Amino acid sequence: MDQKLADLVQKKQKQAGTGEQIDWDERRNRYVAAVDALYAQIEGMLAEAIGQKKVASQKREKHLTESYIGTYAVNDLILLIGDEPVRFSPRGRNIAGAEGRVDVVGERGEAILILRGDADWGFVQSRQPTLAVVPLKEETLAEVLQLVMRD
Amino acid sequence: MPFPAVVQPSAEPQTLDEILDWHRGIVDALIEQRVSVQTAIRRGLAVAPRFVGMTERDVDIHYDAQRRELDRLTVLNLVASAEATIKLDYFRRVNERLKDSLSRAYREWHNRLSAKQRRRPDFDERGILDVLKGAGVMDNHIVGRYRECLHVRHWLGHGRYWAKPAQVEQLDPDEVFDRANKLLQAIPA
């Protein structure tokens, strides 16, 4: 190997060694587990309606590819509310200011849920002028669904 | 009749070099900020509220758009700066009654204008650039290549409400700097 190239590689290796090492597999696993927990939380909130067959819930596997993490499998959650589908679609673990993101996609619009900490999902109400993230509860879920679904 | 032969006290003319230097500074800042946001994502560090929830791809798209906008505004500035220099040179030659061929061509054309046009002569078609081209003091293609930049300048300066000219995607700040600079350098002293 050319000396300059060897020096560059060595320098970069040293720089990488000085920082805190990131366990990307662990990050991915925690994110996938948090997504599963989110779906369980949502299905719990809708348990009565699901039991009465007013809401149908279905999971569909997809693959995400992210820097450092690589490609991995994660589920979309599709709710059929009446005749209208709403899809909860994971966007990834590597998210600015959060530990993960799931988009809520309806026929009228989209909303963003972000993960803070291990299991605290919140709905991003606004970014400007100030950041407003509302913790996901039953009333927040209703707000999100109203936002993305047809009137 | 008063002509704007000299730079007015409140004017803020910029040279092509100053504009390009500003552009490079802002490009550096954008690159630095982009890296800092991408690093924050990787390291789990805090980011400004407007970035919260963005994926790495979103961040790339955001900064690509910022760069595109910066380039366009820089092109506008460069073309306008050259236009200002050419107009000031035009008024100087007319007011000082210089004897070289370009000054004579300018003055001859200027004398045929109405009073209103003398204060605000056209620049592009049937304007100063036509006289500059016709005076034979430089290669015609130098004027032609600068003129292509005017399509971009007009589109940007008038609010982009008509179909985007092809030149908008073809001309970056370095290319426009080169064309404008070649034109200014070719104007005889």
Key traits:
heterodimer; A: 151 residues; alpha+beta; 37% strand; B: 189 residues; mainly alpha; 8 helices; elongated
What's the short version?
With 151 residues, chain A is an alpha+beta fold.
Structure notes:
The complex is a heterodimer of chains A (151) and B (189). With 151 residues, chain A is of the alpha+beta class. In chain A, 36% of the residues lie in helices and 37% in strands. Chain A contains 4 helices and 7 strands. A 7-stranded antiparallel sheet of chain A has the order 1-2-3-4-5-6-7. In chain A, strand 2 and strand 3 form a beta hairpin. The mean pLDDT of chain A is 93. Chain B has 189 residues and is mostly helical. Chain B has one domain. The two termini of chain B are 24 Å apart. The relative contact order of chain B is 0.14. The interface between A and B is medium-sized, with 22 and 18 residues.
